[in-house]
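Hey, can you fold this one?
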Amino acid sequence: MRNRIIFVLSGIGLMTAILSAWLFARQPTSQPPLFEPSANPYGDGVYAEGLIESAQSQGQNINIYPEVAGPITQVLVGEGQAVHKGDALVTIDDSVQRATAEQQRAQADAAQALLEELKAQPRPESLAVAAAQVDSARAALKSAADELAKQQRSYDLDHRSISLDVLDNAKNAASLAAANLTVSERQYDLAKAGAWVYDVQNQERQYLALSKAAAASAALLAKYTVRAQTDGVVLAVQSGVGSYVSPQGAYNAYTQGYDPLVTMATPQDRLQVRAYIDEILIDRLPNPAGMKAQMSIRGTNIRLPLTFVRVQPIITPKIELSNQRQERVDVRVLPVIFGFANPGNLHLYPGELVDVYVGAR
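Sure. Predicted structure:
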């Protein structure tokens, strides 16, 4: 009985081993690829990696940095939103600068008021007071002269009638009254002449200086509102309300560096591809007038023809792939820019990597 059980178990084990060997020996059916690998459409074409960007006559994107520092109080646009030139994008706390601008405007207004006061001289009221003072001095002189005449006549009739001291006092009083009249007349002439031309010129310069300071302060206040410099589309806003920004941009905690506060692109109906041609392949590029190129969208079977736009005539290190300036590479490339119309049925965005083939000479 025992031998029979062992024989049955051995048979089962043998059958299991044969079945396992057959199962593992089977070759699984290969799955068809989701897309065809990118292929060179030209017989001897030049390959390059390309970077999609907005269509511009220079540069890749519109990077907007604030010209002042402070915490953000409002973000007025959303990513992907179309904006027009002059539209407000972000506002920065301007409470201190606003108070400074108002103070300098008030100082300029005060200087203008003083200037108008100088130009309006003489005041009729001041001129009337000066004229009254002249009349008073003239009356005082007449009174002093009459008193002197009386004293002199009495003295001439009888030297003993008055003392010389009284006569001298009368003469001095008449002389003082005459001097007071002269001073009053000069004061009247001065009041009638108005402000001195040099005082007016000095006040004009002070008003001009304070007005320029107020204008500069108002211009600086306007910079606390970051505005679009051209029509386009907002690609990215790198910070939110309450975050501190500066002319260096917005701090990115992930890259531990500074990014533009707002990144914009021109309208997305037309895009560009910046193809980085390896320096050892530059000699194989055809004449720009007859240059042909094709772009392959990675992960798809989509191929789009490209139109030559321009060459950026400078060889640069190929650091744009990671955008890390600490990256050490030996590859140097020539940027060649191609353009294409953005198909409405494709999702293409600036910053996307593509494969570019350029027809060789």
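The first strand starts at residue 46 and ends at 54. Let me know if you want another pass with a different chain boundary.
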